[in-house]
Design brief:
Length: about 300
Protein backbone atom coordinates (compact mmCIF):
# COMPACT_ATOMS: atom_id res chain seq x y z
CA UNK A 1 0.00 0.00 0.00
CA UNK A 2 1.12 3.53 -0.65
CA UNK A 3 0.91 6.56 1.49
CA UNK A 4 0.46 10.07 0.27
CA UNK A 5 3.63 11.22 2.02
CA UNK A 6 5.86 9.02 -0.18
CA UNK A 7 4.84 10.90 -3.29
CA UNK A 8 6.89 13.75 -4.65
CA UNK A 9 4.49 16.42 -5.94
CA UNK A 10 5.00 16.90 -9.66
CA UNK A 11 5.90 20.20 -11.20
CA UNK A 12 3.12 21.86 -13.15
CA UNK A 13 2.49 19.25 -15.80
CA UNK A 14 -0.07 20.01 -18.45
CA UNK A 15 0.25 17.84 -21.50
CA UNK A 16 -2.06 17.23 -24.38
CA UNK A 17 -0.02 14.49 -26.01
CA UNK A 18 1.40 11.21 -24.77
CA UNK A 19 4.95 12.49 -24.56
CA UNK A 20 6.39 11.56 -21.17
CA UNK A 21 9.05 8.87 -21.43
CA UNK A 22 7.80 5.63 -19.92
CA UNK A 23 10.45 5.56 -17.17
CA UNK A 24 9.47 9.04 -15.95
CA UNK A 25 5.82 8.14 -16.01
CA UNK A 26 6.42 4.96 -14.06
CA UNK A 27 8.45 6.88 -11.50
CA UNK A 28 5.70 9.44 -11.18
CA UNK A 29 2.65 7.19 -10.93
CA UNK A 30 3.57 3.52 -10.50
CA UNK A 31 4.54 1.51 -7.46
CA UNK A 32 5.06 -1.93 -8.95
CA UNK A 33 6.71 -4.58 -6.77
CA UNK A 34 9.85 -6.35 -7.92
CA UNK A 35 8.53 -9.68 -6.64
CA UNK A 36 5.13 -11.35 -6.44
CA UNK A 37 3.71 -9.42 -9.36
CA UNK A 38 0.12 -10.65 -9.50
CA UNK A 39 -1.05 -10.48 -13.11
CA UNK A 40 -0.60 -13.52 -15.35
CA UNK A 41 1.92 -12.92 -18.18
CA UNK A 42 0.20 -10.99 -20.97
CA UNK A 43 -2.87 -10.11 -18.92
CA UNK A 44 -4.66 -7.05 -20.27
CA UNK A 45 -4.60 -5.46 -16.83
CA UNK A 46 -1.00 -4.34 -17.41
CA UNK A 47 -2.08 -2.46 -20.52
CA UNK A 48 -5.06 -1.01 -18.68
CA UNK A 49 -2.76 0.22 -15.91
CA UNK A 50 -0.48 1.81 -18.47
CA UNK A 51 -3.46 3.64 -20.02
CA UNK A 52 -4.59 4.90 -16.62
CA UNK A 53 -1.11 6.26 -15.88
CA UNK A 54 -0.95 7.91 -19.28
CA UNK A 55 -4.35 9.50 -18.62
CA UNK A 56 -3.07 10.84 -15.28
CA UNK A 57 -0.04 12.18 -17.07
CA UNK A 58 -2.07 13.77 -19.82
CA UNK A 59 -4.16 15.60 -17.24
CA UNK A 60 -1.08 16.54 -15.18
CA UNK A 61 -2.54 14.90 -12.07
CA UNK A 62 -0.65 14.98 -8.82
CA UNK A 63 -0.88 11.41 -7.46
CA UNK A 64 -1.31 12.73 -3.92
CA UNK A 65 -4.58 14.32 -5.10
CA UNK A 66 -5.93 11.09 -6.57
CA UNK A 67 -7.80 8.46 -4.57
CA UNK A 68 -9.12 5.15 -5.84
CA UNK A 69 -11.48 2.53 -4.46
CA UNK A 70 -11.80 -1.12 -5.39
CA UNK A 71 -12.69 -4.60 -4.21
CA UNK A 72 -11.77 -8.24 -4.91
CA UNK A 73 -10.60 -9.61 -8.21
CA UNK A 74 -7.65 -10.06 -10.53
CA UNK A 75 -7.83 -6.31 -11.15
CA UNK A 76 -7.41 -5.49 -7.43
CA UNK A 77 -3.60 -5.19 -7.37
CA UNK A 78 -3.76 -2.52 -10.09
CA UNK A 79 -4.61 0.24 -7.62
CA UNK A 80 -1.86 -0.95 -5.25
CA UNK A 81 0.55 -0.62 -8.17
CA UNK A 82 -0.20 3.11 -8.36
CA UNK A 83 1.23 5.80 -6.10
CA UNK A 84 -2.18 7.33 -5.44
CA UNK A 85 -4.10 6.46 -2.26
CA UNK A 86 -6.44 3.49 -2.33
CA UNK A 87 -9.25 1.92 -0.36
CA UNK A 88 -9.29 -1.83 -0.95
CA UNK A 89 -12.69 -2.72 0.43
CA UNK A 90 -15.30 -5.43 0.21
CA UNK A 91 -16.10 -6.98 -3.15
CA UNK A 92 -18.54 -4.77 -5.08
CA UNK A 93 -18.58 -1.73 -2.80
CA UNK A 94 -16.14 0.53 -4.68
CA UNK A 95 -18.84 3.02 -5.73
CA UNK A 96 -19.96 3.36 -2.11
CA UNK A 97 -16.38 4.01 -0.93
CA UNK A 98 -15.76 6.38 -3.81
CA UNK A 99 -18.97 8.27 -3.02
CA UNK A 100 -17.89 8.74 0.60
CA UNK A 101 -14.42 9.82 -0.48
CA UNK A 102 -15.73 12.40 -2.91
CA UNK A 103 -18.24 13.83 -0.45
CA UNK A 104 -15.62 14.13 2.29
CA UNK A 105 -12.78 15.38 0.04
CA UNK A 106 -14.34 17.00 -3.05
CA UNK A 107 -10.98 18.42 -4.12
CA UNK A 108 -9.66 14.90 -4.84
CA UNK A 109 -9.90 13.11 -8.16
CA UNK A 110 -11.76 9.92 -7.26
CA UNK A 111 -11.88 6.73 -9.30
CA UNK A 112 -13.59 3.41 -8.67
CA UNK A 113 -11.48 0.66 -10.26
CA UNK A 114 -13.68 -2.39 -10.65
CA UNK A 115 -13.94 -5.76 -12.34
CA UNK A 116 -17.01 -6.54 -14.40
CA UNK A 117 -18.25 -8.96 -11.73
CA UNK A 118 -17.44 -6.52 -8.95
CA UNK A 119 -19.15 -3.58 -10.63
CA UNK A 120 -22.13 -5.23 -12.32
CA UNK A 121 -22.86 -8.35 -10.29
CA UNK A 122 -22.32 -8.09 -6.53
CA UNK A 123 -21.82 -4.31 -6.77
CA UNK A 124 -24.55 -3.58 -9.30
CA UNK A 125 -26.77 -1.86 -6.78
CA UNK A 126 -24.06 0.55 -5.59
CA UNK A 127 -23.11 1.21 -9.18
CA UNK A 128 -26.56 2.16 -10.48
CA UNK A 129 -27.30 4.45 -7.55
CA UNK A 130 -23.97 6.26 -7.78
CA UNK A 131 -24.72 6.79 -11.48
CA UNK A 132 -28.23 8.01 -10.67
CA UNK A 133 -26.83 10.65 -8.31
CA UNK A 134 -24.31 11.86 -10.88
CA UNK A 135 -21.60 12.14 -8.27
CA UNK A 136 -18.25 13.24 -9.69
CA UNK A 137 -16.40 9.93 -9.75
CA UNK A 138 -15.00 7.88 -12.63
CA UNK A 139 -15.72 4.17 -12.71
CA UNK A 140 -13.20 2.24 -14.79
CA UNK A 141 -14.60 -1.26 -15.29
CA UNK A 142 -12.23 -4.01 -16.45
CA UNK A 143 -14.42 -6.37 -18.43
CA UNK A 144 -12.75 -9.75 -18.91
CA UNK A 145 -16.10 -11.51 -19.51
CA UNK A 146 -16.33 -13.13 -16.10
CA UNK A 147 -14.86 -13.83 -12.69
CA UNK A 148 -11.12 -14.19 -13.30
CA UNK A 149 -9.82 -14.37 -9.78
CA UNK A 150 -11.99 -17.29 -8.75
CA UNK A 151 -11.24 -19.40 -11.82
CA UNK A 152 -13.21 -18.05 -14.77
CA UNK A 153 -16.86 -18.54 -13.82
CA UNK A 154 -19.48 -16.74 -15.91
CA UNK A 155 -20.77 -13.35 -14.84
CA UNK A 156 -23.19 -10.74 -16.13
CA UNK A 157 -20.98 -9.70 -19.05
CA UNK A 158 -20.08 -13.20 -20.27
CA UNK A 159 -21.03 -13.30 -23.95
CA UNK A 160 -23.97 -15.59 -24.58
CA UNK A 161 -22.81 -18.91 -25.98
CA UNK A 162 -19.24 -18.71 -24.71
CA UNK A 163 -17.65 -21.44 -22.61
CA UNK A 164 -16.61 -20.77 -19.02
CA UNK A 165 -15.80 -22.78 -15.90
CA UNK A 166 -19.51 -22.83 -15.04
CA UNK A 167 -21.01 -22.94 -18.55
CA UNK A 168 -19.11 -25.65 -20.35
CA UNK A 169 -21.90 -26.13 -22.91
CA UNK A 170 -22.05 -22.37 -23.54
CA UNK A 171 -23.36 -19.47 -21.48
CA UNK A 172 -27.15 -19.74 -21.65
CA UNK A 173 -27.96 -16.21 -20.44
CA UNK A 174 -27.80 -12.95 -22.37
CA UNK A 175 -25.09 -10.54 -21.22
CA UNK A 176 -25.46 -7.02 -19.94
CA UNK A 177 -24.31 -4.25 -22.16
CA UNK A 178 -22.49 -2.43 -19.35
CA UNK A 179 -22.57 0.91 -21.16
CA UNK A 180 -26.26 0.73 -21.82
CA UNK A 181 -26.84 -0.09 -18.17
CA UNK A 182 -24.72 2.91 -17.10
CA UNK A 183 -26.66 5.25 -19.38
CA UNK A 184 -29.99 3.90 -18.15
CA UNK A 185 -28.90 4.40 -14.57
CA UNK A 186 -28.00 8.05 -15.16
CA UNK A 187 -24.26 8.18 -15.91
CA UNK A 188 -23.47 11.41 -17.74
CA UNK A 189 -20.28 10.24 -19.53
CA UNK A 190 -20.10 6.69 -20.90
CA UNK A 191 -17.38 5.25 -23.10
CA UNK A 192 -16.01 1.91 -24.23
CA UNK A 193 -12.53 0.91 -25.34
CA UNK A 194 -10.20 -2.09 -25.24
CA UNK A 195 -6.66 -2.81 -24.10
CA UNK A 196 -5.80 -3.49 -27.76
CA UNK A 197 -6.41 0.23 -28.49
CA UNK A 198 -4.05 1.91 -25.98
CA UNK A 199 -4.16 5.48 -27.35
CA UNK A 200 -7.95 5.40 -27.63
CA UNK A 201 -8.28 3.86 -24.18
CA UNK A 202 -6.05 6.55 -22.70
CA UNK A 203 -8.23 9.25 -24.21
CA UNK A 204 -11.48 7.69 -23.01
CA UNK A 205 -10.09 7.45 -19.46
CA UNK A 206 -8.59 10.95 -19.46
CA UNK A 207 -11.87 12.43 -20.70
CA UNK A 208 -13.80 10.48 -18.06
CA UNK A 209 -11.56 11.81 -15.28
CA UNK A 210 -11.87 15.35 -16.60
CA UNK A 211 -15.67 15.01 -16.76
CA UNK A 212 -17.66 16.72 -13.98
CA UNK A 213 -20.16 14.05 -12.94
CA UNK A 214 -20.46 10.27 -13.00
CA UNK A 215 -18.27 8.86 -15.73
CA UNK A 216 -18.08 5.22 -16.79
CA UNK A 217 -15.48 3.57 -19.01
CA UNK A 218 -15.86 -0.07 -19.99
CA UNK A 219 -12.41 -1.51 -20.73
CA UNK A 220 -12.52 -4.77 -22.67
CA UNK A 221 -9.59 -6.66 -21.20
CA UNK A 222 -8.15 -10.00 -22.22
CA UNK A 223 -8.23 -12.92 -19.84
CA UNK A 224 -6.73 -15.44 -22.22
CA UNK A 225 -5.96 -17.71 -19.25
CA UNK A 226 -9.61 -18.46 -18.52
CA UNK A 227 -12.09 -17.01 -21.02
CA UNK A 228 -9.72 -16.99 -23.99
CA UNK A 229 -8.39 -20.51 -23.47
CA UNK A 230 -11.90 -21.94 -23.34
CA UNK A 231 -13.01 -20.07 -26.44
CA UNK A 232 -10.23 -20.79 -28.90
CA UNK A 233 -7.89 -17.93 -27.91
CA UNK A 234 -5.30 -19.31 -25.48
CA UNK A 235 -2.66 -16.62 -26.02
CA UNK A 236 -2.80 -12.96 -25.05
CA UNK A 237 -2.13 -12.01 -28.67
CA UNK A 238 -5.11 -14.10 -29.84
CA UNK A 239 -7.43 -12.00 -27.73
CA UNK A 240 -5.82 -8.69 -28.63
CA UNK A 241 -6.29 -9.60 -32.29
CA UNK A 242 -9.87 -10.59 -31.51
CA UNK A 243 -10.55 -7.15 -29.98
CA UNK A 244 -8.88 -5.45 -32.93
CA UNK A 245 -10.73 -7.50 -35.57
CA UNK A 246 -14.13 -7.07 -33.95
CA UNK A 247 -14.05 -3.43 -32.87
CA UNK A 248 -15.49 -0.48 -34.73
CA UNK A 249 -15.57 3.21 -33.80
CA UNK A 250 -18.89 4.76 -32.86
CA UNK A 251 -18.15 7.51 -35.37
CA UNK A 252 -18.33 4.88 -38.16
CA UNK A 253 -21.38 3.02 -36.85
CA UNK A 254 -25.09 3.85 -36.81
CA UNK A 255 -26.20 4.67 -33.28
CA UNK A 256 -28.80 1.88 -33.20
CA UNK A 257 -25.91 -0.61 -33.37
CA UNK A 258 -23.88 0.82 -30.46
CA UNK A 259 -25.45 -1.45 -27.88
CA UNK A 260 -25.49 -4.86 -29.52
CA UNK A 261 -25.31 -7.36 -26.71
CA UNK A 262 -22.32 -9.62 -27.34
CA UNK A 263 -22.93 -13.22 -28.25
CA UNK A 264 -20.24 -15.68 -29.09
CA UNK A 265 -19.73 -18.93 -30.92
CA UNK A 266 -16.39 -20.40 -31.89
CA UNK A 267 -17.51 -20.76 -35.49
CA UNK A 268 -19.01 -17.29 -35.59
CA UNK A 269 -16.40 -14.80 -34.40
CA UNK A 270 -18.30 -11.83 -35.71
CA UNK A 271 -19.06 -10.03 -32.48
CA UNK A 272 -18.93 -6.29 -32.74
CA UNK A 273 -17.57 -4.00 -30.04
CA UNK A 274 -18.49 -0.38 -30.66
CA UNK A 275 -15.81 1.86 -29.16
CA UNK A 276 -15.90 5.53 -28.29
CA UNK A 277 -17.92 7.98 -26.23
CA UNK A 278 -21.42 6.52 -26.31
CA UNK A 279 -23.14 9.10 -24.14
CA UNK A 280 -22.59 12.60 -22.77
CA UNK A 281 -25.19 14.64 -20.98
CA UNK A 282 -25.01 17.86 -18.96
CA UNK A 283 -26.63 17.45 -15.55
CA UNK A 284 -26.05 18.95 -12.09
CA UNK A 285 -23.35 17.17 -10.11
CA UNK A 286 -24.51 15.66 -6.82
CA UNK A 287 -21.83 17.01 -4.44
CA UNK A 288 -22.32 20.60 -5.58
CA UNK A 289 -26.11 20.38 -5.31
CA UNK A 290 -25.82 18.74 -1.92
CA UNK A 291 -23.53 21.50 -0.69
CA UNK A 292 -26.05 24.16 -1.72
CA UNK A 293 -28.84 22.22 -0.01
CA UNK A 294 -26.78 21.96 3.17
CA UNK A 295 -26.01 25.68 3.18
CA UNK A 296 -29.71 26.51 2.72
CA UNK A 297 -30.65 24.16 5.54
CA UNK A 298 -28.01 25.66 7.83
CA UNK A 299 -29.14 29.21 7.03
CA UNK A 300 -32.72 28.20 7.82
CA UNK A 301 -31.65 26.58 11.08
CA UNK A 302 -29.78 29.73 12.11
CA UNK A 303 -32.86 31.79 11.20
CA UNK A 304 -35.10 29.58 13.32
CA UNK A 305 -32.82 29.55 16.37
CA UNK A 306 -32.09 33.30 16.07
C1 LIG B 1 -18.29 -10.71 -0.61
C2 LIG B 1 -17.45 -11.58 -1.50
N1 LIG B 1 -18.04 -12.50 -2.29
C3 LIG B 1 -17.30 -13.27 -3.11
C4 LIG B 1 -15.94 -13.14 -3.13
C5 LIG B 1 -15.14 -14.05 -4.01
N2 LIG B 1 -14.59 -13.36 -5.17
C6 LIG B 1 -13.35 -12.85 -5.16
S1 LIG B 1 -12.91 -12.20 -6.63
C7 LIG B 1 -14.41 -12.61 -7.30
C8 LIG B 1 -14.72 -12.37 -8.75
C9 LIG B 1 -14.22 -11.08 -9.23
O1 LIG B 1 -14.63 -10.92 -10.56
P1 LIG B 1 -14.41 -9.53 -11.25
O2 LIG B 1 -14.90 -8.45 -10.41
O3 LIG B 1 -14.95 -9.61 -12.62
O4 LIG B 1 -12.82 -9.39 -11.27
P2 LIG B 1 -11.73 -10.26 -12.06
O5 LIG B 1 -11.21 -11.27 -11.08
O6 LIG B 1 -12.39 -10.89 -13.23
O7 LIG B 1 -10.68 -9.24 -12.44
C10 LIG B 1 -15.23 -13.24 -6.38
C11 LIG B 1 -16.59 -13.74 -6.65
C12 LIG B 1 -15.35 -12.17 -2.28
N3 LIG B 1 -14.03 -11.95 -2.27
N4 LIG B 1 -16.12 -11.41 -1.49
S1 LIG C 1 -6.66 -14.92 -14.62
FE1 LIG C 1 -7.09 -13.66 -16.42
S2 LIG C 1 -7.70 -11.61 -15.65
FE2 LIG C 1 -6.72 -12.77 -13.97
S3 LIG C 1 -4.57 -12.08 -14.01
FE3 LIG C 1 -4.72 -13.98 -15.22
S4 LIG C 1 -5.07 -13.29 -17.36
FE4 LIG C 1 -5.49 -11.56 -16.00
MG1 LIG D 1 -13.98 -10.00 -14.40
Amino acid sequence: MNTITEVQPPQARKRKQIETPMDDMIQMYADVPEKNFRYCPGCGLGMAQSAIMRAFDRLGLDPSKVATAGGSGCYSPLAHYLKSSHIHGSHGRACAYATGLKMARPELTVLALQGDGDCLSIGGNHFIHAARRNIDISVICFNNFGFGDTGGQFGPTTPKGSVTETSNAGMPEAAFDACKLAIGAGATYVARSTVAHPAHLTKMIADAIAWKGFAFVEVLQNCHVFWGKRNGMPQAMDMLKYFKDNSVRNTDTPQEEWFDIPTYAVDEKNMKFVLGVLHKEARNEFGEDYDKLRQRAMAQAVGVSG
